[in-house]
Design brief:
The chain is of the alpha+beta class. The chain has helices at residues 28-38, 45-53, 101-115, 130-138, and strands at residues 9-11, 17-22, 57-63, 72-81, 84-92, 120-126, 142-147, 158-164. The structure holds coenzyme A.
Length: 166
């Protein structure tokens, strides 16, 4: 069953509003476009197909409000595991970064967590991914541990970050 975002829009830093909704299998190609634009090592089509079919996994997507852009410009993949929300990925298309969409997505998930009495949000992030670490720290996450050599593509360490919910 889909876990809907608490509201159907997020506000960018410039005050512009962007529609937010659950992804469907029809969004697969658009999710790949975002991933390929945002990530050095993007998820494969097979990984997105798996996530779209997993009961514990949910994907939210942000729609562009600008006609010259891709239709979808942001995505958040998370798992609900008991009373925890695990962020698997957050990605904003390269053309749309810096507008506050990553922040809006993570904060929307925190609102869902508060509304549904989840205890915490957690994630792993590459040690060298400064923009993402800054984003999570801005959203109130703290570093709670490390996983050595966690990423198989380059052996990079992961930082484990957690935000306790109310
Ligand atoms: C990380 C990411 C999702 C941020 O999305 P975004 O919409 O561009 O970020 P926002 O505009 O919401 O910025 C929120 C905060 O993130 C941090 N941040 C964002 N981009 C940054 C950059 N290039 N350098 C340093 N910090 C950055 C800042 O703290 C920023 O707050 P500020 O504007 O007050 O300085 C985006 O850069 C991205 O898609 N990166 C590639 C995918 C990725 O690494 N995902 C994380 C997987 S764990």
């Amino acid at each position: 069953m889909s876990i809907q975002p608490p509201t159907d829009e997020i506000q960018g830093k410039d005050g512009q509003r962007y529609m937010l909704r659950c992804a469907t299998p029809d969004d697969l190609q658009a999710l790949l476009v975002i991933a390929n634009s945002a990530h050095h090592s993007p998820w494969s089509e097979g990984i997105f197909v798996r996530e779209l079919g997993l009961d514990i996994s949910e994907i939210w997507v942000v729609e562009s409000n600008q006609p010259e852009e891709e239709e979808l410009i942001g995505s958040l993949v998370f798992w609900r595991v008991h009373d925890e929300l695990h962020i698997q990925d957050v990605a904003v298309h390269g053309d749309a970064q810096g507008r506050g969409l990553g922040f809006g997505l993570v904060e929307m998930l925190a609102t869902l967590g508060d509304d549904t009495e989840m205890s915490l949000m957690t994630l792993e992030v590459r040690k060298g991914n400064v923009p993402a670490i800054n984003l999570y720290e801005k959203c109130g996450f703290e570093r709670v541990g490390e996983r050595k050599g966690y990423y198989s593509d380059n052996g990079e360490d992961a930082i484990i970050m957690t935000r306790i919910l109310a």
